[in-house]
């Protein structure tokens, strides 16, 4: 049957009223071709919540949305016209647009599971020549949380790396390097770091890696490197063994502790602190704030949500809690981070010999696989094969 496709942004221009006129024109064409399908991509461009009479702007978007609401379910029935729309911002859509009679069914497209990732890799890999040792199922197991676009990008990067190295096909090693590049950024081997910077980075990453192995609820260590990746001078990489749909409080507590490990080890080595822990500080703070405000994982406030309204919702609302509660939330966040930092200091102090061993090995080897780190430090942990 006839198929009409349009983007939400195509309706709007600088002239007020153009969007509503284009909505009517689109439905007029659809009525003439009925039965037909109409697909509107990025519908949040015109379907965002209306500002209301109090809004000074009097947005033309509101007129466009009103026109669409009338056409989809007004007094004149549009028989034989099926409307399909897509958005990655369902939280900003106007409730009237989502009610039954307009969009009767809402389908949430989640990230692919293990089976889905294997099928997506096989689909995108049809045009790529692989070496005999290439195993897409292993890559699928090692890419939890990847979207279809991430997986397509991974294979593109692998093909480019294979061409640069004049290989006949994409090997398993190339696939894993492409995955690491997509996850953590490309290696910048051209960065000329002084010996002192290399040693400081080695201690910093060794602190992260050591806690990654010592803490029972942390994801398995994948690799630790002092070769700059992306904007970071080094990286400690961890990968879950399987798809994780739910996280526990114990996991978040261990993750905060791992974030603190780099700063603790760096301070132990240099007697000073640097800007190298900036992202670790941001990550730990975000985890702690989410534990208090979103997940109800603190004893003081318990089973409550203090999440503020989305800044993109079009509604200016004060935070859903008092100034006194805001001070209490800040205190809880600080307490969680302080406890994680104290635990990191304790564990690293008790295992300083292992920290020194790993840091010296990193200065010499630059990159060490997670399994090799486990054997080196005598901290082997059971894990699923080819994770």
How would you characterize this protein structure?
The chain is mainly α and 387 residues long. Helix content is 50%, strand content 7%. The strands form two sheets. A three-stranded parallel sheet has the order 1-2-3, covered by helices on one side. It has a three-stranded antiparallel sheet with strand order 5-4-6. Mean pLDDT is 87; it is low at 53-58.
Observed structural traits:
single chain; 387 residues; mainly alpha; 3-stranded antiparallel sheet; 14 helices; 7% strand
Helix content, binned percent? 40-55%
Strand/helix succession? EHEHHEHHHHHHEEHHHHEH
Largest sheet: spatial strand order: 1-2-3
Q: What composes the largest sheet?
A: 3 strands, parallel
The CA-CA distance between the termini, in Å, is 46 Å
Pairing-aware structural class of the strands and helices? mainly alpha
Mind telling me the C-alpha Rg?
26 Å
Tally of helical runs: 14
Residue-averaged pLDDT, rounded? 87
């Amino acid at each position: 049957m006839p198929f009409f496709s349009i983007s939400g942004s195509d309706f709007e221009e600088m002239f007020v009223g153009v969007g509503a006129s284009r909505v009517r024109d689109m439905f007029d064409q659809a009525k003439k071709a009925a039965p037909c399908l109409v697909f509107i991509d990025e519908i949040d461009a015109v379907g965002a919540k209306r500002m209301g009479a109090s809004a000074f702007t009097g947005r033309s978007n509101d007129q466009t949305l009103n026109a669409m609401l009338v056409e989809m379910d007004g007094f004149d029935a549009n028989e034989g016209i099926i409307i399909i729309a897509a958005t990655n911002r369902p939280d900003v859509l106007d409730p009237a647009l989502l009610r039954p009679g307009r969009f009767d069914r809402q389908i949430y497209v989640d990230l692919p599971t293990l089976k889905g990732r294997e099928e997506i890799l096989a689909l995108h890999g049809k045009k790529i020549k692989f070496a005999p040792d290439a195993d897409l199922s292993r890559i699928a197991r090692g890419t939890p949380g990847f979207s279809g676009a991430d997986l397509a990008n991974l294979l593109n990067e692998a093909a480019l790396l294979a061409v640069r190295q004049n290989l006949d096909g994409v090997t398993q090693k190339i696939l894993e390097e492409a995955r690491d590049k997509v996850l953590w950024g490309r290696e910048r081997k051209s960065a000329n770091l002084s010996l002192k910077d290399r040693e400081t980075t080695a201690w910093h990453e060794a602190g992260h890696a050591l806690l990654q192995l010592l803490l029972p609820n942390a994801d398995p260590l994948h690799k630790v490197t002092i070769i700059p990746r992306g904007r970071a001078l080094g990286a400690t990489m961890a990968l879950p063994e399987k798809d994780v749909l739910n996280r526990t409080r114990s996991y978040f507590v261990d993750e905060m502790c791992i974030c603190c490990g780099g700063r603790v080890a760096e301070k132990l080595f240099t007697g000073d602190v640097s800007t190298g822990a900036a992202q670790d500080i941001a990550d730990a703070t975000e985890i702690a704030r989410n534990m208090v405000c979103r997940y109800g994982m603190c004893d003081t406030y318990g089973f409550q949500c203090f999440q503020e309204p989305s800044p993109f919702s079009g509604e200016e609302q004060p935070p859903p809690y008092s100034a006194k509660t805001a001070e209490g939330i800040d205190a809880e966040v600080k307490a969680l981070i302080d406890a994680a930092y104290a635990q990191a200091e304790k564990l690293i102090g008790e295992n300083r010999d292992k920290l020194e061993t790993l840091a010296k090995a990193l200065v010499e080897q630059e990159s060490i696989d997670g399994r090799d780190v486990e054997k080196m430090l005598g901290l082997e942990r059971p894990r699923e094969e080819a994770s």
